[in-house]
Amino acid sequence: MESNKQPSKPASQEVEDAWKRSSNRLLSLQLDEGGWEGEVVWCPILPAQYVIVCYFIGRKIPEEEKQKILKQFEYTRHEDGLWGMHPDSQPYLFVTTLVYVASRLLGMDGKDELLIRAQEFITSGKGVLAIPSWGKFWLALMHLFEWKGVRPILPELWLIPKWIALHPSNYYCHTRLIYAPMAFLYGRKSTTQEDESISKIREELFPEGYSQDLFDNASSMLRGEEVCSPPGRALKCFYFLGHLFESMPFKPLRKIAEKRILQLIRDDLETTGGRFISPMSGLLSIVTLHVAGGTRAELDYLFNQLKEWIFVDDVGGMRIAGARSMTWDTAFALQALGTEIDTPGIQKAREALAREQILSSSPTIGRQFRSDPMGGFCFGHASHFWPVSDCTAEALVALLQNKEDLTISKDRIESAVNFILSRQNPDGGFGSYEARRCRSTLDWLNPAEMFGNSMVEHSWVECTASCIEALVTARAHLGYQKSSTEYQLSLQSESMAAAWLLKQQKHDGSWFGGWGICYLYGTMFGIRGLIAGGSKHDAAELIAAGNWLVSKQHEDGSWGESHEASYHEKWIDGPPNCTQTAWALIGLQSLKLPQFQEPIERGISFLVEKLDENGNWPDQRGTGIFFRSAVLDYRLYRRIFPLRALLLHKRNENLECGAGVT
Question: What mean pLDDT do residues 579-599 have?
Fold first, then answer.
């Protein structure tokens, strides 16, 4: 508990003034194109990999850019002189080592104050030999690790029948498009040319000497503090067989597998306009195309497209974002502003959001092992060409909230609905980019020890809840006859999804969220999904959810949850956080039950108190997450969700007064 202060009920005028200040502030951040987008901040690993890739392919980094990258390394360094997965994480050998290598490649002296503590950390204990598998891979590319010390990533897996679960087409899309170029590069044992800089860095990483026998057992060495998903017996057996296969002098299918991987990379390059599904996938693909003989013009084009992921300023230097979020942020911003504000800027935002719907497909979709993207909305812009179920759902809800002024046609609503339905899993829940493709979670195969839940698509609480609400909202607008096939399909999908959502509720009343931290995020969506799916507000499961939320409220009216909750999959209290407080309040206010009014007032009082005169809530730790351990800071969350909580409070008060605002 952060404070013993007991908040009083805020006056209606105080809430109204806070809502006006915060909504005006959000409106002031609207982009010229009409939407909103905040930076999605991860950690310095992507800039470090950017430097490594530039060095590998011989691309000179301008001096000004070098300084901006070093500024990012300085900005993200922890107080102990090391680097982690996010600001609150423990130090990671993986991140610290790659930042160290990148800094040295940029010309920084190893004895510089920025790097001294890092070198001590890297060379302690088992040293860099214990870096997680992804770190071993990147170091091997740079001639700083031997390939025999890297766990096998076999290109030939792309040639096995697709019905076998191990085929990479069954992986989560981000995972398969990272491991495709990694498999190509591992198969080639690609490495940069050794020069004086590489030799010097290698001496620093291995101060007691570098020899082949160091790496005989290195592939199985892991720094335990960074392991989220430890390899089990089955995976160790798989690695043993992979190493055995690699020792064979003749591999007749490797060239065929490499050709298939290259085709996949080029197809993704074409459909995304050179942006790739993610910056990490893009960086690895650039190295792969270079090794495969790509032209300088082609690589220059890809680096130019990579700029879309880059943010630069004088404070944090050069960052590479974990995602671009224009559609996501705009959809939630419109919902937070609601129909109470109707200005030319709001209409411009609706039009900007509507433009981001994907209205075509691609002839290579099947060859890429992809589901049809038509009708969907991406996380960022449509040009990314990787639409997501909940992005589509939230965009649809935002576009349909103003019944008097729709900016999307009936045909396009139906197209979005069809896209959403195609992402539903047999268990009733919804995947994110795709529906799940195999029964096994393939967790036993996870080679990225630092992450969890990363191998296949899952049914996600938040995706499922968003999709239920979107389907219900769209059905009301489309005016289907109850006897129509379309009506029945939508109704059946909603029913299956709501049943799945109910099964995911924990015994204490909460839900686990996979893309936000964590139980507060999941419970907000769980409540929202069940209500949209037809549950009565006073149903036992919803009262249990409300009681759980109240049990986690701090004495000062706030809520806060630690990122460790996602890692350990259990509730761990955290410091007061305005975004997480808003999530709890959105959940409680959605219930519209009198027994929760007192904690709601306390929470609203906390948000009103924390809002400054300019309409800003304080900068706090990130509340987004992926793969259980990687925290993301969605910079607009702290502006959007608290505003949404105030809007719901304002609406509920008006209803109590008989104003009838909906």
Answer: 97
Task: Look at strands 630-634 and 624-626 and give their pairing.
Answer: antiparallel
Q: Model-level pTM?
A: 0.95
Q: Mean pLDDT across the stretch 634-645? A: 98
3-state secondary structure 387-421: EEHHHHHHHHHHHHCCCCCCCCCHHHHHHHHHHHH
Kindly report the CATH number assigned to the domain that includes residue 339.
Answer: 1.50.10.20
Domain boundary among 287, 320, 353: 320
Could you give the number of structural domains in the chain? Answer: 3
Please give the radius of gyration of the chain, using alpha carbons only, rounded to the nearest integer.
25
Same domain, 351 and 238: no
pLDDT-above-70 percentage for the chain: 97
CA-to-CA distance for 292 and 201, rounded, in angstroms?
27
C-alpha to C-alpha distance for 447 and 454, rounded to whole angstroms: 10
Residues 134 and 158 in one domain: yes
Contact 429, 497 (CB under 8 A): yes
**Do 482 and 569 belong together in one domain?**
no
Closest CA to 510 of 527, 529, 534, 486: 527
The residue range of the domain holding 463 is: 325-442+457-504
Rounded (5°) CA angle 638-639-640: 100
Q: At what angle do helices 93-105 and 45-57 cross, to 10 degrees?
A: 40
